């Protein structure tokens, strides 16, 4: 096993340790990336390690990469998606919507599950964030479904499967990122949204 493989494994293992310790994902990624970049620079410059790493090719272009991301008009949508999801969670709108739909659909057979599907579709369409939708739906729905004597696997499976719809139902963060990476007029955000509408 070469030195590069060891560094990659060490970087991944460090990231997992930081996540398990409860550090925020953004700080863990940024901090570990910076530490391993400095470690790679020191190993190449002072210990003669045979790595692909160069200062000019990595840390030296960091300011240009950050400016490129900030100046990208498509990326403005990402913090707004995240803000919308946080507002739905913190304001209690999603929870009130869930309780209102339970009153309407609760008496039906499978009414809780139908409610979770409807709320999940609305959350996915408004946030587009899979992790946030799954976590929010899990907190809101699994407890009441289990209290209503639903099968545990059905309750958990419904919340998880409906929460993952956020990746395909427009507007979706994944489609915005895909349009940015493809960078062609044939794959604009609007066209990707229209293409995902029927499968969603």
Q: Could you give a short description of this structure?
A:
The protein has helices at about 5-20, 25-45, 60-70, 75-90, 95-105, 110-125, 130-145, 150-165, 175-180, 190-195. It is mostly helical and about 200 residues long.
Alpha-carbon Rg, integer: 22 Å
Low-confidence stretches: none
Could you tell me the strand content as a percent range? under 5%
Computed structural class: mainly alpha
Q: Which sequence of SSEs, written as H and E, runs from N to C?
A: HHHHHHHHHH
Biggest beta sheet summary:
none
Q: How many strand segments? A: 0
User: How would you describe the oligomerization state of the chains in this entry?
Assistant: single chain
Helix content: over 70%
SS element count, helices: 10
- What is the typical, i.e. mean, pLDDT? 80
The separation of the N and C termini measures 44 Å
Instruction: Estimate the global geometry from the Cα principal axes.
Output: elongated
Question: Could you characterize what this model shows?
Answer:
The chain is an all-alpha fold and about 200 residues long. The protein is built from ten helices and no strands. The protein has helices spanning about 5-20, 25-45, 60-70, 75-90, 95-105, 110-125, 130-145, 150-165, 175-180, 190-195. The longest helix has 23 residues, at about 25-45. It is elongated, with a radius of gyration of 22 Å. The mean pLDDT is about 80.
């Amino acid at each position: 096993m070469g030195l590069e493989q060891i560094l990659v494994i060490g970087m991944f293992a460090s990231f997992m340790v930081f996540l398990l310790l409860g550090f925020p994902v953004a700080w863990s990624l940024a901090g570990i990336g910076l530490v391993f970049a400095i470690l790679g620079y020191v190993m190449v410059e002072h210990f003669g390690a045979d790595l692909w790493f160069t200062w000019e090719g990595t840390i030296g272009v960091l300011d240009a990469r950050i400016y490129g991301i900030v100046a990208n008009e498509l990326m403005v949508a990402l913090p707004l998606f995240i803000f919308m999801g946080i507002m739905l969670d913190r304001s209690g709108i999603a929870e009130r919507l869930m309780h209102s739909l339970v009153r309407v659909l609760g008496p039906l057979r499978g009414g809780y599950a139908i409610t979770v599907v409807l709320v999940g579709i609305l959350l996915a369409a408004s946030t587009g964030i899979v992790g946030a939708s799954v976590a929010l739906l899990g907190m809101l729905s699994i407890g009441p479904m289990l209290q209503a004597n639903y099968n545990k696997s059905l309750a958990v499976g419904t919340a998880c499967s409906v929460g993952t719809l956020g990746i395909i139902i427009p507007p979706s963060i994944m489609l915005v990122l895909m349009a940015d990476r493809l960078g062609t007029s044939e794959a604009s955000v609007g066209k990707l949204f229209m293409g995902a509408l029927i499968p969603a």
